[in-house]
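Reviewer 2 asked us to include a model.

Predict the structure of this chain.
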Amino acid sequence: MNKKKHWYDYLWIWSIVYFSLGFFNILFAWLGMIDFIVPLLFAIFAGNKNFCNKYCGRGQLFTVLGKNAKCSMGRPAPKWLSSKWFRYGFLVFFLSMFGNMVYQTYLVAGGARSLREVIKLFWTIKVPWGWTYTVGTVPDWVAQYSFGFYSLMLTSTLIGLIVMVLFKPRTWCSFCPMGTMTQGICKLKTTCKSI
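Predicted model (C-alpha cells):
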C-alpha cells in the first residue's frame, strides 16, 4: 500500500531549484537562509525537529537519489559519524566557517577590496563561476555574502551526497550541523521546562 503524498514530500525539488538559481545568479543564494532560519524557529518555538524529519528538502533529496534512484550502497555508516564528539566537532567547524564568511562580508562592507567574490568548494577549491554575478548590481557585501553562503550550502550538500553514495541515503542527517543545533535547542527547552 502506497503512503499518501503530501505537499511537503516534494520539498526535495527546492534543493534542486535553489542550486540551479544560484548557478545562474549568485544573489539567489540568499534564499538558502530559509534553510537556516526555519529549522531554528521549529526548535525554538515548537521544541521539535519536525523540520529535519518532515520538511528538509536536502534530506528528502538524499532519499530520492539514494533510495528511490538507487544511488546509495545502503551500507551502515561508521558509528563515529554519528558520535557526539564528531557531531559537535563538525558543528563547531561549520559555525567557524560560517563565522569566517560573515566576517569577510563585514570586511567587504567596510570597504575591503582584497576579498573576491568566488565560489569555494570544501572551503579551499575555487570554482570559476564568474558569470553568476554582474558587478555593481547590488552592494559588494551583498554579493560577498551570496558567494560565501552558496559555497557553504554547496559544500555541505556535496559532503551529504558523498556519504549518501557510500552509506545509507540520509547519513548526512546523522551529523548535519543544523540537526545538531536544533537537537541541542530542543534538549535545552525540555531541560528548562522540567526545572
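The mean pLDDT is 88. The first strand starts at residue 119 and ends at 121. We have added this to the supplementary material.
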